[in-house]
Amino acid sequence: MRRHLALIFLFVPFYAFTQEPASCDNLYIDLDGDLSVGAPDLLLLLTAFGVDFDVDGDSIPDCNDDCVGAYDACGVCNGPGPTVLSIDTILFTYDSVYVAESDEWLVTVLDSDTLLHFICDSLGCTEPAADNYDPYLIIGGDCIYDDFTCGSPILYDGYSYPTVSIGDQCWFAENLRTTRYSNGADIAFTGSNCFPMSQLWQNTYSQARTLYGEYGEMMGAPCTPCSETSPVINACDPLQSLPEYGRLYNWYAVTDSRGLCPSGWVVPNNAQWNELGEFVSDQGSQVGQALKSQSGWADYVNSDGVAADGNGEDQFGFGALPGGVRGENGNFSGAGSNGQWWSRSPFGFFAYRYRITSG
Predict the structure, then answer these.
(1) How far, in Å, CA of 209 to CA of 11, rounded?
(2) How many whole angstroms separate alpha carbon 84 and alpha carbon 106?
(3) What global pTM score does this model have?
(4) Across 121-208, where does the E strand assignment appear?
(5) Highest mean pLDDT among 43-47, 95-99, 211-215
(6) What percentage of the chain has pLDDT greater than the value 70?
(7) 103 CB contacts (<8 Å, ≥6 apart)?
(8) Cα–Cα distance for residue pair 249/259, rounded to 1 Å
(9) How big is the chain by its Cα radius of gyration, in Å?
(10) With CB atoms counted within 10 Å of each terminal CB, which end of the chain scores lower, N or C?
(11) CB neighbours (10 Å) of residue 231?
């Protein structure tokens, strides 16, 4: 069965490991998201000792486990189950009397009762041709069609995403840019890193979204440092970064039970990222070079000290772009020279991400 996978650009208020596509235990330990490994990363790593990395005891390593815990009746990992009341049946009790003078029966409703049941918290669709069509809805969610063919666009939150088939997988060919979950709930915006303290990015420990360069200002000066090396746009301008890179989401948004992706799609886990890398490698291609877009990447200095082209070959239509990250400290960095994407696989109380760089 073909898997549907969405590209989720990341930023890091939650400590994260970086992983090469080859295996679960080949880790670059950049825990604080500053694109370098140093003493702070070592101190953070020490806190991980004693963590059981198969915390749900299902014999599947958490780095490859679709759900660390259990799926509820709605198919949500560690979700609350059905929570929305829906009308099941309306019962009426009638009485009638025959009126001989008019030769007719008069019917009266004596009583009524409504039977309710709980359903999953997800919107149906108002399009009659869709598989999840609900004729009682006024405002619907995303439509599901069984006859979807990978390569066809997917409409989600008002934007049409191209899709691409790579091996046995189907991927978004652009990064996600939605502002809401699949059930229609808004994803909290935490762009500004300005005072008061409640708005500081460092204090965000719940689901959040932002745009690269969306830092806010105080007294005419930016509240958050933003660096970029893009050869095609000013990535620190959110009006330019949105159409180029999509939005950035934190780990809490990625793992929220309401679902960041359209119905039928998921944020890839480690096993799915590895499958992509192995397929590309089996075609005789260097994975990063084959997946990178053919433009938008900054030049870099190679091991011989010579300037080299940072662009890729985009052999499979994946179109990976260097959208950078927002680090735990709220700073924006890396746009133009590296792209990073979430895996939904946790590593104890850390998380994985996958990175492609110019070099």
Answers:
(1) 9
(2) 38
(3) 0.66
(4) 154-156, 159-161, 163-166, 169-175
(5) 211-215
(6) 67
(7) none
(8) 12
(9) 25
(10) N
(11) 14
